[in-house]
Amino acid sequence: MDWDSTYFFLFCAVAVLCGAASDYRKKELMHRERLAAIEKGMVPASLNERPLQVYFRRGLVWLIPGLGLGAFLRFVSGDFSTAWGGTGVLMTCLGLAYLLYYFYESRRQRSS
User: Fold this and answer.
1) What is the C-alpha to C-alpha distance for residues 26 and 13, in angstroms, rounded to an integer?
2) Is 43 left (phi over 0), alpha (psi -120 to 50) or beta?
């Protein structure tokens, strides 16, 4: 294994750990806020509810780079049959799944 791969995996590990720590801190602050609201007699919002725009943004964040990677591999390098090609397909499918969920939920909320 060369040093470039080692640095890449180390960077990925640090990025995942930082994201997990940030998410933990965010949930801890939300929990404290929820407890403070309950102590004051207020009805707190649910922790699991997310606005629909979050899913739309996530869909675009996954879809656009996935399409770009796929187009680059197909038209520029000419070799789509690598692991990067599969990564592009996976990113595109995740983006489409988020967008489909967003459109389904927005239509469901409008009808009810």
Assistant:
1) 20
2) beta
Give the number of residues written for the chain.
112
Q: Which residues contact 100 (CB under 8 A, 6 or more apart)?
A: none
CA distances from 67 to 3, 27, 88 (A): 29, 33, 7
Q: In angstroms, rounded to a whole number, what is the distance separating the alpha carbons of residues 104 and 92? A: 18
Share of the chain above pLDDT 90, in %: 33
pLDDT at residue 46, as a whole number: 63
Alpha helices in 3-82 (DSSP H): 3-39, 52-71
Q: Contact at 8 Å (CB) between 94 and 66?
A: yes
Mean pLDDT, residues 31-37: 86
Two structure tokens written together for 28: 């801890």
pLDDT tens digits along 36-71: 888 888 777 665 566 788 899 999 999 999 999 888
At which residue do the structure tokens 């983006």 appear? Answer: 95
